[in-house]
Write the structure tokens for this entry.
Amino acid sequence: MDLLMQYLIICPLVMLAGFIDAIAGGGGLISLPAYMIAGIPVHHAIATNKMSSTMGTALATFKFARKGFIPWKIALSCVVCAFAGSTLGANLALLVNAHIFMLFMIIVLPLTAVYVQKTKSLIVEKEPLSFKKTTILSMATALLIGVYDGFYGPGTGTFLLLLLTGVAHLSIHKANGVTKAVNLTTNVAALCVFLLNAKVLFPLGIIAGLFGMAGNWLGASYFANGSARNVKPIIMIVLGIFFLKVIYELFFK
């Protein structure tokens, strides 16, 4: 495919992915397929997407931190647990057939969509728990989602956001702040591996990353300026895209 056409396909979609990711997570469900549609070989696509998403997530995390949305004691504990869970998940992936796991996701995703439609925790804050209980539940959530991230991965930020609000009773703003801190840390770790193995396409990654930063900046601003109530429909879109992806991988790939 013509080089210019690759940029024309990838950059706008990465920007859109960044906007969605900053608000509700799940941007990788849009950005990674963009690289593949443009004809980038799969390993280079994954690595370069990781670079552009890391750039965007770093900017969103910075903006959320400036706004005071990241409770750092909880966030740092969650980062440690997410790393441990991711390691465990990666090892489980070697033992469990991914086909079985995706069949499980066909059940989980519609149930998640029903929960999103019915829950009020994304709009109305639940009564806060004690700091100790909030921290423990947040760490347990990060560990669980870390296992999922290491095993399979797509939609990790969305699931983490939903569980932090629903289980740990964090506000939507703090839950999104913790999610960004966890995502940034895991993205940087994965990017280092790809850089060491020379899989990143630098010119494309940097330019797409700038578009991703623009999308994340707009999404974070939209979220921070009181538009958190619109998280629910965006999560529903992410879940819908994810469901179609699982169906495609199971029955048409």
